[in-house]
TrEMBL record:
Organism: Natronospira bacteriovora
PROSITE patterns registered for this protein in UniProt: HTH_CROC1
Taxonomic superkingdom: Bacteria
InterPro entries: Antitox_HigA, Cro/C1-type_HTH, Lambda_DNA-bd_dom_sf
Protein name: Transcriptional regulator
Record domain HTH cro/C1-type: where: 61-114
Length: 122
C-alpha cells in the first residue's frame, strides 16, 4: 500500500484512478483496506475543495415541488394563503421561522437551504 495525502487535483485524479482499479477488491484483503483508506482521503479532499453549497430557499422549494409534482396550492399548509405562497415563490417575502419549520417537517427540505436569506438567492 503506497498511500499519500491528496494535495491537489493531480493527486485527486491519481487517487480516483487507483480507487477504480481497486473496486473489485476481495473483502478483507490488503486491496480492500487500501480502497477504504483512499475513499476516506477522497471524501475529505472533496469536502474541502469540491464543496457543494446548499441551494437557496427558493431553489430548494421549487426542486421539491418538481420532485413531488406539487402545485402552489399544495404549499399553502406550509406557507399560508395563496397570496403569501405567491409572494414567497416570487422572492417578495422571506420565510418565517414557522414556514421554515413546516417546510422542513412536511416536505423534508433541508434546514441548511431554508435558513438562507432570500435576497442571496440566485
Amino acid at each position: 500500500m503506497n498511500i499519500r495525502p491528496i494535495h491537489n487535483e493531480q493527486d485527486y485524479e491519481a487517487a480516483l484512478a487507483r480507487v477504480e482499479a481497486l473496486m473489485d477488491a476481495e473483502p478483507g484483503s490488503e486491496e480492500a483496506d487500501e480502497l477504504d483508506v483512499l475513499a476516506t482521503l477522497l471524501a475529505a479532499y472533496e469536502a474541502r475543495v469540491h464543496r457543494i453549497d446548499a441551494p437557496d430557499p427558493l431553489s430548494a422549494i421549487r426542486f421539491r415541488m418538481e420532485q413531488q409534482g406539487l402545485t402552489r396550492k399544495d404549499l399553502e399548509p406550509y406557507i399560508g394563503h395563496s397570496g403569501r405562497v405567491a409572494e414567497v415563490l416570487n422572492g417578495k417575502r422571506g420565510l418565517s421561522l414557522q414556514m421554515i419549520r413546516r417546510l422542513h417537517a412536511g416536505l423534508d427540505i433541508p434546514l441548511e437551504s431554508l435558513i438562507q436569506p432570500l435576497d442571496e438567492a440566485s
